[in-house]
Amino acid sequence: MDKLTTLHSRVSLWLALAGCAVSLAAGAALGISRPARAQTPEPEKGEAAPPSEYPYLTARYGEAYIPSVAEWQAMRLTALGASTTRLDEHFNRQHVTCFATPKGLLMTLDLVPLPGWSYYQAGGRFSAPLDKVTPDLEKAVEKTLRFTRSFFGEVRDPDISLRLFINSEFVGAFEGGKLSLKAEEAPQK
What we know:
The chain is an alpha+beta fold. It is built from three helices and nine strands.
């Protein structure tokens, strides 16, 4: 069975390579070629500039940009995290953003409490003690980190800097693998 699998993968690889070669040959035979955008020469002095892809913007917006794999994954994570998603019985994730930097991932997480979780009050305050609130928020952060690892499998908690918001109000941060809340307990009446 192992030899059959190896043979199948080798045949598939050779078929793919042969298909690429045939495509290249057919393109050359038919005279289909276009210079890459990055190779397009600048107009000579006195010549008119080529039409811009975005005529309402300056030429720099039409320049080629090739993102790194980390930037691409961060953009994918941000795009897929832009819609409201239920995390658990306490929170919906309003959105999550991610930026890849040389020092680590910079992220934001905005949560919306579900009706059964009534500990959050406006202005970054909680109606319950922080030790009662923290485990629920840690659970929401952990679910978000699990989502993050589907894009960055090798990232470690210390490599992530996450700003935590509830209803778009800053309440805390996840730094160095630990959640710390900046929100306060509301004064008891």
